[in-house]
Design brief:
The protein has helices spanning 20-31, 56-64, 68-71, 108-121, 171-175, 250-265, 313-332; strands at 11-16, 36-40, 53-54, 75-77, 79-84, 87-92, 103-105, 125-128, 130-138, 141-149, 155-164, 179-180, 186-195, 203-207, 221-226, 231-239, 277-282, 287-288, 291-292, 295-297. It is of the alpha+beta class. The strands form 4 sheets. Strands 1, 2, 8, 9, 10, 11, 19 and 20 form an 8-stranded mixed sheet that branches. A 7-stranded mixed sheet has the order 6-5-14-15-16-13-17, covered by helices on one side. It has a 3-stranded antiparallel sheet with strand order 3-7-4. Bound molecules: flavin-adenine dinucleotide (FAD). Residues 16-22, 39-42, 48-53, 131-132, 165-168, 171-172, 189-191, 235, 279, 281, 299-301, 305, 310-314, 316 line the site of flavin-adenine dinucleotide.
Length: 336
């Protein structure tokens, strides 16, 4: 961890949040030669509730950040096995001129630290255990944030531009006036891990016909993502557009799904390796505004998640890269 850059106007960009969005933005801005600091309230390696699945599109972004080699030691998969109504379809990733024909499953504790350290190697300052408490706003312009290190006295980190990458809850973004468009759908999902000899299956699996423990069809879909480390990540997700969405107990839904697939996946559904945790997923760009005077909002904080499957890691990387490009232009055209 580096020291906090203090003093007026000392850095070009302050990034709030060191998840996929913040770390990728830090990498691209530092690579372009800008003075950038990422504040992350937790210490790496830190957990993030996730399915841990990386599509070829996300892998492409990681490879573009020079992470192809370290990524290769994790579990690589060939495509998606979709199951429904007693049928299975194994759908290989297509060959594509830009994206690879494989994905990876990487625990977020490993993935996010790898991307954050890569930003540091590119020249970014990473401040772990630093929470951005509130934006510094002067005459309507955001000039950084007041930041507390491990709960201590706040200091001001001043920057020409601020990137909001603080995830789905986005307290910092909301302090700047962002909100979710209520009429648009959002998702909720829950996951845990189980040991299984099938931990390195070459397919990720998605069940399109979830059932509860009574065999009644339930809303949502289930996933089994082999992590390759002796475990699989198993979860269920559903959309707010489902009837009776608010009355669905996702813990029970996950439990039912785990029992449904237990024999086939050789898991003990009563013995997860860790407690199931859940999270909300804003999607379809439903959170805004995504920009204001001297700030931009990226990743989950901007609702940048695919509403089809709940994939957000790639969109965090991509919105980060777009934001870095825009800020690079602003910082180099003399108007910064
Ligand atoms: C159950 C579940 C399963 C999912 N499965 C997948 C999947 O398999 N594949 C996929 O692509 N996507 C998946 N997603 C979505 C994915 O997890 C998110 O889209 C992705 O993490 C977004 O990255 P982010 O950087 O925007 O936010 P985050 O990953 O949430 O990172 C935000 C970071 O900001 C930090 N932070 C927050 N507030 C502050 C503050 N004030 N000061 C400093 N730091 C702060 C947090 O500690 C965190 O590290 C899933 C989501 C859920 C809930």
């Amino acid at each position: 961890m580096s020291d906090a850059p203090t003093g007026p106007g000392e850095i070009d960009v302050l990034i709030v949040g060191g998840g996929p969005a913040g770390a990728a933005a830090g990498y691209w801005l530092a690579t372009a030669g800008h003075r950038v600091a990422i504040v992350e309230r937790k210490h790496y390696p830190r957990e993030k509730t996730c399915g841990d699945g990386l599509t070829p599109r996300a892998v492409h972004q990681l490879e573009e950040m020079g992470l192809g080699d370290p990524l290769a030691k994790f579990h690589r998969f060939d495509g998606l096995r979709a199951t429904a109504g007693g049928r299975e379809l194994e759908l290989k990733w297509p060959s594509h001129p830009v994206y690879p024909s494989y994905g990876y499953v990487v625990r977020r504790s490993d993935l996010d630290e790898m991307v954050a350290r890569n930003a540091v190697a590119a020249g970014a300052t990473l401040l772990e255990g630093h929470e951005a408490l509130a934006p510094v706003v002067e005459r309507g312009f955001v000039h950084g944030a007041s930041v507390s290190r491990d709960g201590g006295e706040p200091i001001e980190i001043r920057a020409k531009y601020t990137l909001v990458a603080d995830g789905a809850n986005s307290r910092f973004g909301r302090a700047l006036g962002t909100s979710r468009t209520r009429e648009w759908p959002y998702g909720t999902a829950i996951r845990t891990y189980f040991e299984t000899p099938r931990h390195d299956d070459p397919w990720i699996e998605s069940a399109l016909d979830l059932k509860d423990r009574n065999g009644t069809t339930a809303p949502g879909y289930g996933w089994i993502f082999p992590v390759g480390d002796g475990t699989v990540n198993i979860g269920v997700g559903l959309l707010s557009t489902f009837r009776d969405f608010t009355s669905v107990n996702t813990t029970h839904l996950l439990d039912g799904y785990c029992h449904q697939i237990a024999d086939r996946w050789q898991i003990d559904p009563e013995a997860p390796t860790q407690r199931a945790t859940s999270g909300r997923i804003p999607m379809g760009g439903s959170v805004g505004p995504k920009q204001g005077p001297t700030y931009l909002v990226i990743g989950d904080a901007a609702g940048a998640v695919n509403p089809f499957n709940g994939e957000g890691i790639d969109y965090a990387y991509e919105t980060a890269r777009m934001a870095a490009d825009v800020l690079h232009e602003a910082l180099t055209d003399g108007n910064a």
